C-alpha cells in the first residue's frame, strides 16, 4: 500500500513539475501534487493513529484513500476476530487415533474395559498387548453389572491436573451414541473416539436352514432398505441424538488453524479494484485537467493579445490628442505669395 502511494505521488509529481510546470498558472496549493501528498500524509497519519486532518481535493486521491481505509478495516476486523477466538476458545491437545500413540504420549494412562466383554477377553489373552494389560488395563476393569451411563460418568469424571488420563475401550457404536451427553459445551468435544479398530467382530442372526421364515425375513429387510426406512431410523434415532458435537470426524475442533492470507483474498480483491478505480479516475482527471490547462493557456494568449491591441490604440489616441492641442504659428500655414 505504501509503495502504491509512493508510485502514485511520483506519477503526479512528474506530470506536474516537468510536463505542465511551465504552462500552468495555478498556485502551488491548487496543484495535483499537493492533493497526492495530502492523501499519502493522511494514510501515514492513519497508520500512526493520528487520524485525518483534512481530505484531499482530487477524486482519485479520495478513491485510493477510501479503498485503503476499507481494506484496513476488514483486515483489522479479521485479525481481531482471529485473536479473540485464539485467546478465548478452549484449547486442548490434538487427540491421538491409535492406542500405541496414546500410550507414548501418556504412559500412565488408565485404560478401562468392561468385564467379560469381547475386548476384555482380547486384551487378556493377546501377546501383543500383554504389557499394556499388566500396566494399564488389569487394575481398571469395570464390573459387568455397571450401567453404561455410570461408566461414562466415571470416564468423564473431572480429575486433578497432571493426573493419569482415563481411556475407555468399548464398541464404537455405543461410545459414539453416549459420549455427546457428557460434553459440557456443545461446540467443544471433551471426549474423542479414536479411529483405530482394535478388534473386528461379525454379528449375525441364526436361522434354521430351509426355514420358511428365511425368504420372508430377507424380503422384509430388502423392502426396509429400498423404501429408506433404515436411513430414516438412523437419522431420527441416531444422528439426532448426537447433537452439535461431532467427535468422530478425526479432527480436533479446538485445533483449527488461524486466519491466513489465503482466507483474506476477498479483502485484497477489493483493494485491487479500488486501486484500479483510483488510477482510472486519475487518468480521467488528468485528461480533463489537460484540456482545462489548454483552455487557460489559450485564454491567456487571447488576453495578452487584446492587452497589446488596447495599449496600441491608447497610445495612438494620446498622440492625436497631443497634436490637436498644440499651438501652430500662422506663418507656417499662410501662402508665401501674400
Report on this structure:
There is one protein chain. This protein is an all-alpha fold. Helices cover 58% and strands 3% of the residues. It contains 12 helices and 3 strands; from the N terminus they run H-H-H-H-E-H-H-E-H-E-H-H-H-H-H. The protein has a 3-stranded parallel β-sheet with strand order 2-1-3, with no helix packed on it. It is elongated, with a radius of gyration of 45 Å. It starts with a helix and ends in a 5-residue tail after the last helix.
- Helical content stands at 55-70%
In DSSP terms (H or I, runs of 4 or more residues), the helix count works out at 12
Strands side by side in the biggest sheet: 2-1-3
Helix/strand order, N-terminal first: HHHHEHHEHEHHHHH
- The tally of strands reads 3
How much of the sequence lies in strands comes to under 5%
Low-confidence stretches: 19-23, 240-244, 246-255, 330-338
For the sheet with most strands, the description reads: 3 strands, parallel
Structural class by secondary-structure content: mainly alpha
In angstroms, what separates the terminal alpha carbons?
100 Å
Q: Please, what is the average pLDDT?
A: 67
| Alpha carbon gyration radius | 45 Å
Coarse shape: elongated
List keywords for this structure.
3-stranded parallel β-sheet, 338 residues, mainly alpha
Topology:
Layout: H1 2-19, H2 32-47, H3 59-88, H4 99-105, E1 110-114, H5 118-125, H6 130-137, E2 141-142, H7 148-155, E3 166-168, H8 172-179, H9 213-226, H10 229-242, H11 265-325, H12 330-333
Parallel strand pairs: 1-2, 1-3
Amino acid at each position: 500500500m505504501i509503495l502504491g502511494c509512493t508510485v502514485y505521488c511520483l506519477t503526479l509529481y512528474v506530470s506536474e513539475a516537468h510536463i505542465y510546470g511551465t504552462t500552468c498558472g495555478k498556485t502551488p496549493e491548487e496543484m495535483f501534487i499537493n492533493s497526492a501528498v495530502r492523501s499519502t500524509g493522511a494514510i501515514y497519519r492513519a497508520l500512526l493513529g493520528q487520524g485525518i486532518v483534512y481530505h484531499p481535493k482530487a477524486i482519485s486521491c479520495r478513491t485510493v484513500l477510501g479503498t485503503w481505509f476499507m481494506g484496513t478495516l476488514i483486515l483489522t476486523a479479521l485479525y481481531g476476530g482471529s485473536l479473540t477466538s485464539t485467546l478465548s476458545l478452549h484449547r486442548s491437545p490434538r487427540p491421538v487415533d491409535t492406542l500405541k500413540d496414546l500410550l507414548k504420549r501418556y504412559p500412565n494412562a488408565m485404560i478401562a474395559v468392561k468385564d467379560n466383554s469381547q475386548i476384555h477377553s482380547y486384551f487378556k489373552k493377546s501377546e501383543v498387548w500383554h504389557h499394556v494389560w499388566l500396566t494399564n488395563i488389569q487394575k481398571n476393569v469395570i464390573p459387568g453389572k455397571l450401567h453404561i451411563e455410570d461408566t461414562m460418568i466415571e470416564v468423564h469424571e473431572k480429575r486433578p491436573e497432571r493426573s493419569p488420563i482415563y481411556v475407555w475401550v468399548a464398541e464404537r457404536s455405543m461410545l459414539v451414541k453416549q459420549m455427546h451427553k457428557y460434553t459440557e459445551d456443545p461446540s467443544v468435544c471433551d471426549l474423542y473416539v479414536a479411529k483405530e479398530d482394535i478388534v473386528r467382530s461379525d454379528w449375525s442372526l441364526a436361522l434354521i436352514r430351509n426355514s420358511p421364515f428365511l425368504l420372508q425375513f430377507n424380503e422384509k429387510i430388502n423392502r426396509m432398505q429400498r423404501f429408506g426406512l433404515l436411513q430414516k431410523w438412523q437419522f431420527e434415532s441416531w444422528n439426532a441424538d448426537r447433537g452439535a458435537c461431532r467427535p468422530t470426524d478425526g479432527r480436533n475442533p479446538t485445533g483449527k488453524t488461524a486466519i491466513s492470507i489465503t482466507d483474506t483474498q476477498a479483502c485484497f480483491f477489493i483493494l485491487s479494484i479500488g486501486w484500479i478505480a483510483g488510477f482510472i479516475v486519475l487518468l480521467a482527471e488528468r485528461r480533463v485537467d489537460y484540456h482545462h490547462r489548454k483552455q487557460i493557456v489559450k485564454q491567456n494568449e487571447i488576453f495578452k493579445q487584446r492587452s497589446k491591441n488596447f495599449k496600441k490604440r491608447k497610445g495612438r489616441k494620446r498622440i492625436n490628442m497631443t497634436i490637436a492641442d498644440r499651438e501652430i504659428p500662422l506663418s507656417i500655414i499662410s501662402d508665401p505669395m501674400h
